[in-house]
Amino acid sequence: MKYETILFDLDGTLTDPGVGITNSVAYALLKFGITVPERKALYRFIGPPLIESFKEFYGFSGDDARLALKYYREYFTSSGMFENTVYPQVPEMLEALKRAGKRLIVATSKPEPFSEEILKHFGLYGFFEKVAGSTLDETRTEKADVISYALDCCGIKPSGSAVMVGDRSHDVLGAKKNGLPCIGVLFGYGSHEELTDAGACLIAEDVPSLQKELIL
């Protein structure tokens, strides 16, 4: 399939934010007297909207989830944002896609200002036509809404020439709601089963295989 426009998730797709996100969640939970013994127990927070994750995984009320998000951002903005690494070969892939004339966009559930700052910090910002993220006031957090916003901002109508790339089921389902196919990647935080059950059109095991599919 020849894709002209490619929307990328950020966390778990372009960068590995595991340390920063889990440290931020652990900091927030500790404010409620909750200690988490293993970092891996918090990996499920990577990708989905945070308020919903605090509700789903720890049974927080709406008010407590919003307070937890406030605490999360205290740590994230001071330290956690850059406790992050770019996946190997991602810059080379983005460079190759740009040379091939592809339109590249970021569509992430992470707040837009934080996403822009992270991409600038790691030298990736210039590859993208638009960085579309969630809002700090939580009025745009669902992945389907972020993707819709990205498409609107760039004047893109869903068609066979646009595709989403992400590592979690909400990337696939958000793309589907906007009439886009989604390629799932296995070097992030979602499993093969999670991505295929959600309806990913293709699964890429690593960055080179993803690049091969996107550059066709």
List the defining traits of the structure above.
single chain, 216 residues, alpha/beta, Rossmann fold, DNA polymerase, domain 1, 6-stranded parallel beta sheet, two-stranded antiparallel ribbon, 9 helices
Q: Tell me the name of the CATH homologous superfamily of the largest domain.
A: HAD superfamily/HAD-like
Share of helix, binned: 40-55%
- Terminal CA distance reads 7 Å
Query: Please, how many domains?
Result: 2
Strand fraction: 15-25%
Shape: globular
CATH topology of the largest domain: Rossmann fold
Low-pLDDT windows of residues: none
Corresponding CATH architecture of the largest domain: 3-Layer(aba) Sandwich
Largest sheet, in brief, is: 6 strands, parallel
Number of strands: 8
User: Which structural class is indicated by helix and strand composition?
Assistant: alpha/beta
Total helical segments? 9
Question: What would you report as the Rg, rounded to the nearest angstrom?
Answer: 17 Å
- CATH C-level class of the largest domain is Alpha Beta
Q: Which strands sit side by side, in order, in the main sheet?
A: 5-4-1-6-7-8
The ordered H/E elements are EEHHHEHEHEHEHEHEH
Mean pLDDT: 95
